[in-house]
Amino acid sequence: MADRPLLNRRLEGFGTTIFAEMSALAGRTGAINLGQGFPDTDGPAEIGEAAARAIRDGRGNQYPPGPGVPELRQAIADHQRRFYGLAFDPDREVLVTAGATEAVAASMLALLEPGDEVVAFEPFYDSYAACIAMAGATRVPLTLRAPDFRPDIDALRDAVTPRTRLLLLNSPHNPTGMVLTRREAAAIAELAVERDLLVVTDEVYEHLVFDGEHIPLGSLPGMRERTVSISSSGKTFSLTGWKIGWITASADLVASVRTAKQFMTYVSGGPLQYAIAEALRLPDAYFADFREDLRAKRDLLADGLVDAGFEVYRPQGTYFITTDVAPLGETDGFAFCRALPERRGVVAVPNAVFYDTPEAGRTQVRFAFCKQQGVLQAAVDRLTGL
Ligand code: PMP
Ligand code: GLN
Questions:
Q1: Rounded mean pLDDT of 13-27?
Q2: Cα(4) to centroid(ligand 1), Å
Q3: Which of 23, 139, 315, 319 has its CB 3.0 to 4.6 Å from that of 370, i.e. a possible disulfide?
């Protein structure tokens, strides 16, 4: 045992996630936590009631069906039709997962072979790098650069090689808040078709677009048969602890992802699945009000950070604002974030951890704005005069 590391070589260097590290730091210091992205108010009361009712009524307390309860799969299919005009067969083309996290992991393990290449936007959401590595594949960055973090389609074309198996895309994009335009999405889709690539798209912030619109890549010509679309109830319903996510894709792709997924959690969150089925049927006003509430919070925090001297890259979507702390005289976002709880009682996340070339994001720092207005204002007050 002694001469062999206890951690599989593929996971070397992944350690503890930055989000867990920063939430622990907030816990220890009592600082305002604008690091890990979770709301500080719980989602709709009636959805909580629906979950309680399901538990009381004995729905989902025992193993639900592997692909998810029929009520939720139908609600997911209806959601795709209602918001995007997309038709999915709830029995063969929808799979419920333990959050988007499991959906990403199962997709990578199911669809990749060792040696395959995966092109993904850099900065990468943290679990992407780890999941690609667990599958024995290699990530190839398509770097999004400040100030507007637009994807360079020519660079994407160059990044695709004969070894490229899939594109792992995320729009709205965490952490930059970039939202693909219709033109960008169409160019990416064209390339995927031309090079015969699979596309896995993480759309967990689909209902959090403030400027522009959310374009599901799977809706574009030639994409339906090659796209796995991932989403989750965590963000849309402010229930990040429930971990009810899903994929929609062709029956072949769903069968493949399900094969991996069934040996990870098998199933999860039985009673919660019934409640999320109800959540997905909330009226349009719920989704619009939710977005407008977050938009106001984005503006409050963005304006406050500008006044406090940060360079602010105003996001078009998501929960997050990426800033640059160089104008404050800072040279290292990591050091800045480690010191900030003691200095100012605020926790944020250094974007450098999302880059393969940390230099690219060295002074970028991410703040979450999915918090009550009073909390955001208090954070701004603390950050003013740094
Ligand atoms: N993808 C992205 C881009 C995220 O920001 C997150 C975190 N919320 C996830 C996936 C994970 O989602 P879930 O909590 O549903 O597993
Ligand atoms: N998606 C959340 C974020 O970006 C974190 C989720 C997690 O901790 N895995 O902050």
A1: 90
A2: 33
A3: 319
Instruction: Indicate whether 1 belongs to any domain.
Output: no
Please tell me the residue having the least CA distance from ligand 1 atom 12: 100
Hunting for tokens 């009810």 — which residue is that? Answer: 244
Does residue 19's CB lie within 6 angstroms of at least one atom of ligand 2?
A: yes
Which CATH number covers residue 197? 3.40.640.10
Alpha carbon of 175 to ligand 2 centroid (Å): 10
How do strand 349-350 and strand 364-368 relate by DSSP bridges?
Answer: antiparallel
Ligand 2 site, residue 24, Cβ cutoff 6 A: no
Same domain, 15 and 149: no
Same domain, 260 and 361: no
Let me know if residue 237 belongs to a domain: yes
Burial 98-110 (b: 16+ CB within 10 A, else e): bbbbbbbbbbbbb
Q: Is 268 in the pocket of ligand 1 (CB under 6 A)?
A: no
- Are 213 and 358 part of one and the same domain? no
Do residues 262 and 295 both lie within one domain? no
Give the pLDDT confidence score for residue 85 in this predicted structure.
98
Give the residue, by CA position, lying nearest to ligand 2 atom 1: 37
From 248, 279, 310, give the residue that closes a domain. Answer: 279
State residue 371's pLDDT score.
98
> For residue range 281-333, what is the model confidence (pLDDT) as tens digits?
999 999 999 999 999 999 999 999 999 999 999 999 999 999 999 999 999 99
Q: Which domain holds residue 290?
A: 6-42+285-383
99 lines ligand 1 (CB under 6 A): yes
How far apart, in whole angstroms, are the C-alpha atoms of residue 341 and residue 31?
6
Give the pLDDT confidence score for residue 72 in this predicted structure: 98
Rounded-to-integer distance, Cα 12 and Cα 97, Å: 26
**Cis ω before 39 (30° cut-off from 0):** no
Are 340 and 209 in the same domain?
no
Q: CA 57 to CA 52: how far, in whole Å?
A: 9
Nearest atom in ligand 1 to the alpha carbon of residue 125 is: 3
Mean pLDDT for the chain? 97
Question: According to the model, what pLDDT value does residue 15 have?
Answer: 86
Distance 269 CA to ligand 1 centre (A): 16
Stated pTM of the model: 0.97
Tell how far the Cα of 307 is from the centroid of ligand 1, in angstroms.
30
Rg of the chain over all Cα atoms, to the nearest angstrom: 20
Say if CB 127 and CB 107 are below 8 A apart.
Answer: no
